[in-house]
Amino acid sequence: MNVDDLRWQLSTLGGVLPRIVDEILERGGLEALVDATRVREDWFCAAGAVRGLCAAGEFGRAWAVVKPFAATGWQPAVRAGADVLLRWGRVDQALELARPKGPQEHAFDTWRDYAEMLVRAGRVDDAIGVLGPHLRGGRALGALVEMTEGLGCDERVLELLAPIAEDFRRGPEQGDVRDLWDVLPAQARVLERAGRADQAIRLLGADVAARRYGVLNTVEFYAELLARCGRIEELGDLADTHRHAAVRPYVRALESLGRAEEAEAYLRGLIAARYPGWYESMLMELLFRQGRFDDAVKAVEHTFDDLYDGNLLQAAMLLLTEKGRYDQALELTEGRSPEFLAENEAFWLRSNRWWLMGEAGRAREAIAEIEALPADEVEDREVTIAWLLAQDGRVEEAIALVRPLPGKRAATDLAELFIRQGRFTEAIAVIPDVAAQREEARHGRAKRQESASPDVGHVCDDSWAAWNTAPLE
Known about the structure:
The protein is mostly helical and 473 residues long.
């Protein structure tokens, strides 16, 4: 088994796409995934098979599936294998597999995974000891806080965090703490869960006042802490001075207290004061949560013909579809300005419209619209029509249309059609294996290199992730 192939699959979503694996599992195709793992050495098939077998309590079979992958030493497979063994009750074997062995490509990942196994095995002190030496490296802080929650060891965790936090507060630009911004919210989080929320608020409030901000935004965490603790007035003051980080937590806190009208008035005030337009998006979401769909659309419809970032048309359409209001979402596509249509109709508006029509039971109408257009004006014309045929219950017609088509998108769409019919083995078989995908990617990359001008260079993209989207969305 080739570790490089495994890395490529994970980094590019190569092999059988995770969403295809999920669909197969959801529809009862577990055994097809188990069989595919033996034939294809496909990581996502293996991970799906392990998930399904463990859910069924078949840990021995799950271990048989993942064992060859774990034997390579590739960390994601080692982690999955140790998880199976631990759930199977083979604790010592799980810990032995998870224990780091020699230099590792991603050393912290291996130690974190080992610490998590120790926690699950009931050896919390050993896990803390494993992570302790790594705490000034960055990510270990978050891992320590996450894995010790609810285990009664908060005071020991605080003992480890406190000196790092104090060093950071004294000199955040010092080399050994410069990248440890997350120590401040980490310390506050453990204080809060240890029943010392007032101390957490006091410390973090001082950090915010001293402008000790970071990539993991101390202000945002402070706002959420105030919301959880019911300190609404302080949160409102924070929102007035740190709008970008604190307005959303403030609005959600008001809403949770039954003060949605107050939250709405606050957002409308910000919008009236001509603050950045993302408050309009927040207002729309608030009104949707309140079930006021028409009011939500009305609040933002003035943006629907904008040609720049403030346009909330697609966001409104998506929120409506989440509520099953496909026809209302479709109405928003009508009456758009010629300028907006010139920029967006072929790019995304038509395809979204056809998807909505398919979901709304108007697939035949959508097919008629597509067939009335010149063929070269509709990207992925055949697969789009095939999806609509399937929505209309004409799956065999859809399969016949897609089967002859070349390319990755067609292969995945054909697989989805087979899955609808419960033909799981065929669904997997139509997707090229990893070797074929990598060869196709190399060929495509070479063609791009040949066509790229010397001063522009080329994009190295051998990813199948670019087509990891549902049809027409």
